[in-house]
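Researcher: Structure prediction, please.
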Amino acid sequence: VQLVVVTKGHPLQLAQWVIDAGARILGENYIDEGLEKINALTDKSEVKWHMIGHLQSRKARKMCEHFNLFQALDSVKLALRLDRLAGELGWKLPVFLECNLSGEASKFGFRCWNHTLLEDFLEQIKVFEELENVIAQGLMTMPPFDQNPEASRPYFRNLRVIKERINGVYPDLPITELSMGMSNDYEIAIQEGATIIRIGQAILGKRPPK
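Model: Predicted structure follows.
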């Protein structure tokens, strides 16, 4: 299981300390904030940066130029744009497909919370067989927050089932990763098959007020 340390909202010095402590994958939710840290830590070439938040189309080029992996791809339209941009930059962009499994309007992601929507999602992602520069490597989700970590289990289990379904329908798509689980429920996520967990508060403490 890979650990992504989520440095969103934390100062540069804390990102430096967590790298010094051994973290090798850092996650940011906002392009501009992430770029400040990436540019300030250019000597840390062994560190990988994951964009884990919603991406505005107008900032897609910056993401392609500076981040190693995009965890929150939520539409075919954005995938097509990123495929073109990555091609212009001459590299392959690994991505995870974000799945909205709860139906919460506040969450982004492909709509997958019932059977009809899931079938539509499976049809939409056929496009990833044809893209040359965007490589779909995994799925990501964020369950509704609940004080009881067990409440997340059905969502994590569902994401694993969806991955297995995709593997059956599209055996040539290299979707092997499951990014799920955060500070309050990562143990449940690991039990349900997470290959990547995204931890912020449990390592760095609460984010300072803006």
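Model: The mean pLDDT is 95.
Researcher: Thanks, that helps.
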